[in-house]
Amino acid sequence: MFSATIAMEWYGIGCLASIGTAFYLVRRVPAFFLCGTAILVAFIVLTGFSRPPEWYVMTAGLLASFAGLVIVRLMLMRSVSLRLLGRIGGADDRAFHDDLGARLHEMRVWRLVRGTDRGNALTPAGRIVARAAAATYRVCRIGR
Amino acid sequence: MTTLALATAAVLFPAIGSELALQGRKLQTALARVLVAWVAAFAAVAGAVVRPDLPAVAVFWCGAFLLWFGVRSHVESSILLRMLYLLRRRPMTDAELMAEYASVYGESMRLAELGRGGLVVEDPGGMRVTPKGKVVLLFASKLR
Description:
The complex is a heterodimer. Chain A is mainly α. Chain A contains 6 helices and 2 strands. Chain A has a two-stranded antiparallel ribbon with strand order 1-2. In chain A, strand 1 (about 115) and strand 2 (about 120) form a beta hairpin. In chain A, helix 1 runs parallel beside helix 3 (about 55-80). Chain A is elongated and about 65 Å long. Chain A starts with a helix and ends in a 5-residue tail after the last helix. By secondary structure, chain B is mainly alpha-helical. Chain B has 2 domains: about 5-75; about 80-140, no CATH class. In chain B, about 75% of the residues lie in helices and about 5% in strands. Chain B is globular. The interface between A and B is large, with 73 and 75 residues.
């Protein structure tokens, strides 16, 4: 039992390091998603034979690390502020307006808004997301 | 078992503490304060847990921080969420929505935020990226 726990610890640390390495080496989101999933599955298969409480904590930590890094990668790719900084530094030439237009397009593609005679209106899914955003802005005191 | 449960639940303290440390500021301009809150809380927890539980708790905290950071910074800077939030009040045309968004959180406000974070400065020759901003750009280019 004790040696199994030690092995689980090392596998967990190794998996966390692997997820971090994959984040650095694999730039495309779908490919990183596949790598991360494979690493998590490998951890579960290699250590799932005995499941002490630490196993659940370690697995939750690895899952959260992976999910957090997926969000960070998406943010790095889509961040308008970073693009703005790059534009001032001469490394990016995309206009701020283009980014806003792209988000409008995404809202339609993901069916969060629909066209009406008065313009864009929220769909039921869009209303749910908008309510969640409003609640989060309130809780986190993000300027509204 | 109880110690392990408490050590995992304790992530709520730096999550709440970070909100207090941010005081409505953006994460990019107050990241140091947030890191202090998380590191101090982890140090306290690490001192309280027994040695065999420490690796699992450390991986869990690492994951919790990454997930919190990803979600928090995404929520505060997401254009799409902000647009959906604005559409809660009434339907808007593309032009109205973009104008409304720009008045709430447009390019000039993002530039001001970059200035507050010490990433850009304005001098007689115009806006320029500071050494800190260059490090951020370099870091971002290596990760996206």
